[in-house]
Amino acid sequence: MNGFPLRGESGVRARAILAGEIAPAPARDAATVVLLRACGPGVEVYLLRRATSMSFAAGAYVFPGGGVDPRDADRRVAWAGPSPEVWARAFGADVTTARGLVCAAVRETFEESGVLLAGPSPDTLVADTTGDDWEADREALIARELSLAEFLDRRGLVLRTDLLRPWAHWITPDVESKRFDTRFFVAALPPGQRTRDVGGEADQVAWMRPGEALRRAEAGEIFLMSPTIRTLTEIAAFEDVASVLASERRVVTFRPHVAEVEGEMWLFIPEGHDGVS
User: Fold this and answer.
1) Domains in the chain, number
2) What whole-number distance in Å separates Cα of residue 48 and Cα of residue 204?
3) CA distance to 4, 77, 275, 276, per residue, from 170 (Å)
4) Which domain holds residue 18?
5) Are 202 and 51 spatial neighbours (Cβ–Cβ below 8 Å)?
6) At 172, which CATH number?
7) Where are the strands (E) in 9-77, listed by range?
8) 99 CB burial (10 A radius; 0-12, 13-18, 19+)
């Protein structure tokens, strides 16, 4: 189990939480999507760098994702593929939460990359999302002026849950003032679609091989958080996108925890399959 000391304000807050003097912030349900594409004999992942002005994970390279909007659980969302009940079992969640997580995964991926995991029918896909009309809808989704259900209905589309695979479950440690209960998905870049620099919360985007991203982080060129490092390490073990999507995956819950070591507060990150449920 890896760990590092918490100093300054983080250490003070950790000590207060451990002593029961203050309560941890509630963890908000969130979804993250590891978007994959083929790159010669290998795989690339889509990463965006969060703007330094952001209150959470500022400057970190992350996968597309974000908090669940209450409207993501709307039963009117046109749905094709594995049911909410199937996703609930995969993630150990109730059906309503699972529905919201899957919808948030699709919505956030479109908002943050321009890629839409949906199509006119259960076995077709949107081929291009780069026009001005698509951009207007994307901005309306970001502003919460438009719900996912309304967006899909307006365009006559169905959400393709069969394009997603469950991958992992990370819960932000108690010491953080802003916390998320995040389920990780993986998905392949749909044929014909392409990502674009959509701005907003990100100031840079890039496709990278997992190993390249890990090497750059080790060299101090980019900043990666623990869940991203672990996910990239796992993806790097696969030869191609199809192998990633075909892998039999048991979702493990990882929840870093705080402990006092020789008078100093430390944050410990679970490794391997020793995450907690």
Assistant:
1) 1
2) 6
3) 18, 26, 9, 10
4) 2-269
5) yes
6) 3.90.79.10
7) 27-38, 43-50, 61-62, 65-67
8) buried
**CA-to-CA distance for 67 and 104, rounded, in angstroms?**
7
Q: Specify the residue for token string 């890990």.
A: 214
Which residues have a Cβ under 8 Å from the Cβ of 74 and sit 6 or more positions away? 103, 147, 148, 149
Interval 53-83: pLDDT, tens? 555 556 889 999 999 999 999 999 999 999 9
- Point out which residues pair with 27 in neighbouring strands: 179
Q: 62 with 113: CB under 8 angstroms?
A: no
Q: Which of 26, 98, 111, 22 is nearest to 66 (CA)?
A: 111
- Structure-token pair, residue 133: 């009309």
Give a yes or no: residue 275 inside a domain: no
**CA 194-159-154 angle, 5° bins:** 90
- In this prediction the pTM is 0.90
